[in-house]
C-alpha cells in the first residue's frame, strides 16, 4: 500500500504554493498555472487542460522554469487520473530540464515528482534512487519541513520494499523533526508512516494506538484522502492480527469512498483488500468478484506492483475453486511480471552504482588536473615576476585610456538618450492632451444629453399625461400609449448614451464595478458577455482607469459591429502591479489588415507604456491581450495592511480620497 500526498507536496517537496518563486515573465502563463493549481483537487479534467495550455505556451516562448513547474503539476494531475506511466514520462522531462538550467531547487522538486510516479507504478527502487537524489539537494538547500517530507517519502518506499528497519528508522527521524516544524499536514503523514512502520515490525499494540490517533486527527482536519488511506492501512494491520471482521468493516468504508471519488488508487487497494479478506474467510466467490475488479483497475492505471500481488492472490483463489487452468494462467503472468520488476530494480541499482563510480572517477581526475595547474602556475610565478610587472604597467595605461574613451562615449549616449526621451515625452503629452480633450467633450455631450434632451423628453411625457385627461382624448388611448412607450425608449437610449460617454460608476466605485455595470447593460439573449476578475484590483488614478475603461469599451464595440459574435469572454487580472485584460470572441475573425480602430487602440495603450497583442484567424474568433504596469498609477493611493501574511486595501481611504 502507499500514501497519497497533498498535490502541492507532490510538486514541491513541501506544503507550499508551487508558483511562489517563478519570475513573472508572462502573466498569461502564470495565470494558466494558477488555474491548474486551483482545479487539481476538484476537477482533474480542467486542471489537465490548463496544465497542457501552460506547457504549450512555455515551450513556444522558451520559458524553461515555467515549463518545469507546468510539467510537475501535469504529472500530479495524471497521477490523480490513474495515468501513472504518462506521469512518469512528464516527470522525467522535468528532471532533464532542471539539470539543463542547473537549478537545484527545481531539480529536487522534479526528482520528488518522478519518485512519486515510481511509487505509483510499483518501481520502488527507481523511486528510492530519485528520492535519495532529491534528499541530497534538500539537505543542503531546504528547510526542516522539506527534510521531514523527504524522510516521510523514504519511509513509504522502504515500507513497500518490506525493509522494516529502514521504514521505521526514517519515520522516527521525521517524527523528531515534526516536533520542531509543527506542520499539521506533514506531521499527519509522519504519524501514518509511524503506524505502518510499527505494524511492519510486528509491534501491533503501538500500531493500533497510532492508527486510532491518526483517524481522529484526519477527521478533525477533514482530510478525506488520509481518512481513506488510514482505513486501508488499518485493515492491513487487522489482517496481520487475523481480525477479519474488523478488516472487512475498514475495507468496506474505503470501498465506498473509492466508488464515490472514483480515485484509481482507492479502487485498486479497496478491491484488492476485500479480495484478500474474503480469501482468508474462505468465501472464494466474493474474493474472486473483488479480485477481478482490482486487477482491472491495476491494469488500467499501470500499477504493476499491485497487479503482481493481485495475480498471485488470483492464482491462489482459482486453485481453491479447483479452476487449475485459470490458476496456472494467473501464476504464469505473475512470474513474468515479478521477473520484470526484479530486473528493473537490478538495472536501477547497477545504473546508480555506475553513476557513483563515474562521479568518483571524475572527482579524482579533476583533483589531479587542479594539482598540475597549481604547480605550473607556481613555476610561472617564480620565473616571470618582472614580465608581470611590465605587463601590469602597460595594462594600467591602456585601461586608463580606455576608461577616458568609455566615459566620453557614455556621456554622448546619455545626451542622445535624453533627447530621445524628451521627444517621446512630448509625443505622449500631446496624445494625453488629445485624450483629455476628447473625454472633456464626452462629458459635455453626456451632460447636454442628460440635462437637455433627457429633460425635454421628460417634459414632453408630462404634457402628454395632461392631455390624457382632455375630453377629446377618448378613443385615442392606443396611440397615446404607443407615443409614451416611444418616449420611454428614447429616454432610456439617451441615458445609455450618457452613461457610456461619462461613466459615473467609474469615478465612484472603480474599474471593476463600472465594467460589471457596462457589461450588464449590453447583455441580451442573443449576445452574452462572460466577465471574470482574477485578483483584487486596487483603485488607480482616475485618468488611467478611464483609459482602461475606454480601451475595453472600444474592444467590445468592435466585436458588436464587426465580429458577428454571440459570445465574448472578458478576463481582467491583477498580480504584482501588473494589470492584464483579455477579450476573446467567437466571431468571424480579422480579414486582412487591422483597421483604424485597432491603430487608435495601440496609440492609447502606448501612451501609458502598455503592451497589446492581437491574435485572430478567419472564422475562428479574435483574442486581444492588453497588459499594463500600474505601479506609478497606484503610488500614493495604496495602503497595505498586513495581517496574518495577507494584504488588504483600505477602502475607507479610497472613499475619503
Write a structural description.
The protein has helices spanning 7-12, 27-39, 44-61, 64-80, 84-101, 104-121, 124-141, 144-160, 164-181, 184-200, 204-220, 224-240, 244-261, 264-280, 284-301, 304-320, 324-383, 385-467, 477-501, 504-509, 511-522, 542-563, 596-607, 631-634, 651-656, and strands at 528-534, 567-575, 578-585, 611-616, 622-629, 640-643, 646-649. The protein is of the alpha+beta class and 657 residues long. The protein has a 5-stranded mixed β-sheet, sandwiched between helices. The chain has a two-stranded antiparallel ribbon with strand order 6-7. Strand 4 (611-616) and strand 5 form a beta hairpin. Helix 18 (385-467) crosses helix 23 (596-607). The radius of gyration is 35 Å and the shape is flat.
Strand content: 5-15%
- Tell me about the largest β-sheet: 5 strands, mixed
What's the mean pLDDT score? 78
Q: What overall geometry do the principal axes of the alpha carbons give?
A: flat
* Helix/strand/pairing category: alpha+beta
Helix content: over 70%
Low-confidence stretches: 1-17, 356-361, 636-657
E-strand count: 7
Layout of helices and strands, plus pairs?
Blueprint: H1 7-12, H2 27-39, H3 44-61, H4 64-80, H5 84-101, H6 104-121, H7 124-141, H8 144-160, H9 164-181, H10 184-200, H11 204-220, H12 224-240, H13 244-261, H14 264-280, H15 284-301, H16 304-320, H17 324-383, H18 385-467, H19 477-501, H20 504-509, H21 511-522, E1 528-534, H22 542-563, E2 567-575, E3 578-585, H23 596-607, E4 611-616, E5 622-629, H24 631-634, E6 640-643, E7 646-649, H25 651-656
Parallel strand pairs: 1-2
Antiparallel strand pairs: 2-3, 3-5, 4-5, 6-7
